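Ticket #4471: structure output looks truncated?

Reporter: J.K.
Steps to reproduce: submitted the chain below (124 residues) through the standard prediction queue, then opened the result file.
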Amino acid sequence: MGTRQTTGPTASTSLSSLHWLGIALALATGVLHLYLGALFVPSGLGISFVVAAIGFVGGAGVLALDIDVSRRPLYALGALWTLGQIVAWYVVNAPDFSTLGYVDKAIQVGLIAVLVVLIRRDGA
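Returned output as attached by the reporter:
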């Protein structure tokens, strides 16, 4: 177990409202993916939804529980993971997009925006 820094992006401090917004968005898209996974399991598509849900919920959990990791790489990984989800959604579903898909992608674009702000803020 590592020791916590007292300053910088890995400092053990209370999370800001921006952090909590990112956590809420990650959990929202995670729950949507878990729901979709339950609809399609045991197919490969269903399993991919469950894996996506684990990624979103896991990332949110690491941040919310203040696990001893550097936050900036966590934000970057989250942004890339989410961008990958958007690209995969487009490739798999074009041109037949659902309302639920649009809602989920709006949540994910919001999540990416939050993560980019956090990356830029912690990099200063």
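Triage note (M.O.): checked the attachment and the full token line is present. The radius of gyration is 15 Å.
Status: closed, working as intended.
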